[in-house]
Design a protein that fits this description.
Strand order of the largest sheet: 1-7-6-5-4-3-2
Distance between the termini: 40 Å
Helix content: 25-40%
Low-confidence stretches: none
CATH superfamily of one domain: START domain
InterPro entries: Polyketide_cyclase/dehydratase, START-like_dom_sf
CATH architecture of one domain: 2-Layer Sandwich
Pfam families: Polyketide_cyc2
Number of strands: 7
Organism: Nocardioides koreensis
CATH class of one domain: Alpha Beta
Mean pLDDT: 94
Radius of gyration: 15 Å
Strand content: 35-45%
Oligomer: single chain
Protein name: SRPBCC family protein
């Protein structure tokens, strides 16, 4: 299991607003190339966003499904990107004096990527998720700054 933590300098509500806008997914998730559809009830349990992964022009269409949701606190997703496989991703939001601590946990749950040994795949996932959390922070903090003007 890969585990990353990042402190975002805004409130959990504002971080959640980015997570709850499925159309923003490819702006902060490394590897997501474009959005094709966001179901109306996103991010309720069972809802999906339909995205593409890869680098254009070689992209694969797949989806991400909400497994668990506690608004402003926790979001657990099953991200699909076949043929490599699927991963469970959990985002936990905690208010801290500096803003919001976001903890991101991820591991492969299905597909050929499962056979990559954990000591090899965990650092790669950690590296990718560090950048994803950095992008999430940029979005949440900049949107918050615009709203405060």
């Amino acid at each position: 299991m890969s585990r990353n933590t990042w402190t975002i300098k805004t409130t959990p509500d504002r971080v959640w607003a980015v997570l709850a806008d499925g159309w923003l997914y490819p702006l902060w998730v490394v590897g997501a190339t474009r959005m094709r559809e966001v179901e109306d009830d996103w991010p309720s349990v069972g809802s999906r966003i339909h995205h593409s992964v890869g680098v254009w022009p070689i992209v694969l269409n797949d989806d991400t499904e909400v497994l668990e949701c506690e608004p402003q606190k926790r979001l657990k997703l099953r991200a699909r990107g076949w043929p490599p496989g699927e991963a469970d991703v959990e985002l936990r939001l905690t208010a801290v004096p500096e803003g919001t601590e976001v903890e991101m946990l991820e591991d492969v749950t299905a597909g050929p990527a499962r056979f990559v040994p954990k000591p090899v795949r965990a650092p790669l996932i950690t590296w990718r998720n560090t950048e994803s959390l950095r992008r999430l922070a940029f979005l949440a903090e900049r949107r918050a700054a615009r709203q405060e003007r």
